[in-house]
Design goal:
binds pyridoxal-5'-phosphate, 367 residues, Lyase, Ornithine Decarboxylase, Chain A, domain 1, 8-stranded parallel beta sheet
């Protein structure tokens, strides 16, 4: 018997996390963010789980991701918002599939009007300096928005959104104030949106004053903490992703022998290496070697030597490990296995990056 090598996503955890987030932020609603293949968890399957949990809104980066959800069977009773667009995006395919674009410029709004998109959200930049109209562009954008109703356009401004930098509480508050300025500016031209949304997971969970009508949560729904220093369990969340691998081979090495490329590790004693078939081609950083642990049979063992393209080495000492045994790289730490945050900290990054960068070729299943 060989253990499963790949990503297992716990559907019940997704549903429980959705319920937790929805109850924390109520009466605000939730846009379940499933961009980037649901942060590596599988966009369609996760979208379906969130819809089954009660989600009425899904959020993605671009129209391609939104169309893939519709093609996969997410019906038009579920709203899909997409906020990052190629310069040549004409929005006709968005209109045809009832996808709501969030537009960031006069050009994008005009294009959406031409495409007869029924509803758009305006994206205003309040300090992230990424997507969204910056404050100096607001007068022209708002003037066009304000003229739509009188011009007989089919397109209506349904929502206004911005995105936080999560730099500090005062910075978040300043962005909140900038959003209020944008809403005031829109009101002067007669545009009062049905929904305003600013907060992603971090603010949704911890800054009630910034929740507005909807929050756009991604990481929290996958059961991971958006806040370094606060664990999933402390937030009432369950990590949905477990990564496992099967022991492919057992290699005896003698004290002093080098392990893997460049010999960044030498065996300190006679020992046994377990080889698993996941490497940097699958999204596991080469630098994880000598910095993280895995769990086998409830015990922890270190990953040693450089992670290779398709493999990594685990020093299992004289433990009774056999070919085919299950190796847990990370999962829900409440079950005693390493947390993904340990892998993130090992290479100086955040949990988001570790899960989202997993290779699309890594097998994935829902449990
Ligand atoms: C515009 C926007 N909204 C919401 C989110 C979800 O963020 P989080 O995963 O922190 O909840 C993202 C993700 O980066 C985003 O880009």
């Amino acid at each position: 018997m060989s253990a499963f090598t790949g990503i297992t996503v716990d559907r019940e955890a997704l549903i429980a996390n959705y319920a937790t987030v929805a109850s924390v932020v109520a009466p605000a609603g939730v846009i379940a963010v499933v961009k980037a293949d649901a942060y590596g968890h599988g966009a369609l399957e996760c979208a379906q789980a969130f819809v089954d949990a009660g989600a009425e809104w899904l959020g993605v980066a671009d129209i391609d991701e939104a169309l893939a959800l519709r093609a996969g069977g997410i019906g038009d009773d579920v709203r899909i918002l997409a906020w990052l667009h190629a310069p040549d995006e004409d929005f006709r395919r968005a209109a045809a599939a009832d996808i709501t674009p969030a537009v960031s410029s006069v050009e994008q709004l005009a294009t959406a009007v031409d495409a007869e998109v029924p509803r758009v959200h305006l994206v205003v930049d309040t300090g992230l300096s990424r997507n969204g109209a910056v404050e100096s562009e607001w007068p022209e954008l708002f003037a066009l928005a304000g003229s739509l109703a009188a011009s007989g356009a089919r397109t209506r401004i349904e929502g206004v959104m911005s995105h936080l930098s999560n730099a500090s509480e005062p910075d978040d508050a300043a962005q909140g104030a900038a959003l209020e300025r944008a809403l005031a500016g829109l009101a002067t031209v007669g545009v009062v949106p049905d929904v305003v949304h600013l907060a992603a997971s971090a603010a949704a969970l911890s800054l009630p004053s910034l929740r507005h009508d909807l929050v756009r949560t991604g990481i929290a729904l996958y059961g991971l903490s958006p806040v370094p220093g606060r664990t999933s369990a402390e937030l009432g969340l369950r990590p949905a992703m477990t990564v496992t691998a099967s022991v492919l081979r057992l290699i005896p090495v003698r004290a002093g022998e080098g392990v893997s490329y460049g010999y960044t590790h030498r065996a300190e004693r006679d020992t046994t290496l377990a080889i698993v078939g996941l490497g940097y081609a699958d999204g596991f950083d080469r630098a994880f070697g000598n910095r993280v642990d895995v769990a086998i049979g409830g015990r922890r063992f270190p990953v040693v030597g450089r992670v290779a393209m398709n493999a990594m080495h685990i020093d299992v000492g004289d433990a009774p490990v056999a070919v085919g045994d299950e190796v847990v790289l990370w999962g829900d730490p409440a079950t005693g296995v390493p947390a993904v945050e340990e892998w993130a900290a090992a290479i100086g990054t955040i949990n988001y990056e570790i899960v989202a960068r997993l290779g699309r070729g890594v097998p994935r299943r829902m449990s």
